[in-house]
Amino acid sequence: MAACDILISGTGGFAARIAFDIAATTEQPVHVTIAGRNQERLRWLRTAANARAALFGKPARFDTHAIDLLAPDAADALLAATGPRILVQAASIQTSQVIAQRGNAWTRLVAEGGLSATAVFQALISARVAAAITRSGEAITLVNCSFPDVVNGIITALGHDVACGMGNVAILSNVFAGSASVPAGAEVKVLAHYQNLAAWRRPPTERGGPPPRVWIDGREVDDVFARFADIQLTPEPVIEISGASGVPMLLAMAAGREWRGHVPGPNGLPGGYPVRLSEGTLKLDLPAGLTQEEAVAWNAAFEQENGLVVSPAGEARFNGVLREQLTAQLPELAAGFSVRELESVCQTLLGVRDRLMTMAAGDC
């Protein structure tokens, strides 16, 4: 197989959205490979993506590579077989649909303790891929789509590079830019953590908690909930926006063009920020008067209050309600863990998850 411009690791709805929107929007020739285990799904994604490129008259070409991403040395084999310049890691052992599911003790724990309960699961494949890129010595840009607000910090603490993620802050920045309350062509900049999304899944009259910070043409919005009361997200993941949000960036990376927008986890930072892509490097593009230290501290505060914080030295610690709930199931987690123990911690937590999924929501 020839080397590809963009490798998409994963075959779920998020990966499909990325591939299909590349097919419909690219103006420059781009070669995309989609990798995963389900060969029937791979054949469909290849067929549909190439059909969309033909339908819209776009110079995109799609092929596939069958591989079990959880197999030993799978990440190294994948890089050797596909030779990507950009790797979009969209595979995970924990579906994001958990945020909309109910009925067992695990989904209740996630609903009450927060999505960082799944961070270790989300990090497993992404960390393996990042390590394989480091071992390869190749200049491969990693875009991690698996819970990037938190997982990208785990990746960098392990000593690997990650450019950014997709979705989350970019969901909000784009829905705000498309709001009837924003003048056409206005510059919108948003500082947002993934935890800010929950309010917009509820009706306008029920929204509360810390809002994202939003600037329109350089002026910060005083009452974000009131200004954007017309915005409504779905209870389940909004893949139609989140999966699409990184496509302009990916195409700019592939073509060597500049780009401005929003991403979660740029260079391993917590939460999401406005950024600028220049000469292949992502840098923060913050509103005037806001320093990087202030922006990072604002985002970091969410996981410090409730979630998972990873120190630069690689020590991970659960906080708040999530810590209480997880340590009730696994007391040894109270002391936290080193990210270098990710594989063993993941196996232990998988046992907890599997057990809780067999229990009714009120039994834990």
Automatic annotation (TrEMBL):
SUPFAM superfamilies reported for this sequence: NAD(P)-binding Rossmann-fold domains (SSF51735)
InterPro entries from the UniProt entry: NAD(P)-bd_dom_sf
Protein name: Saccharopine dehydrogenase NADP binding domain-containing protein
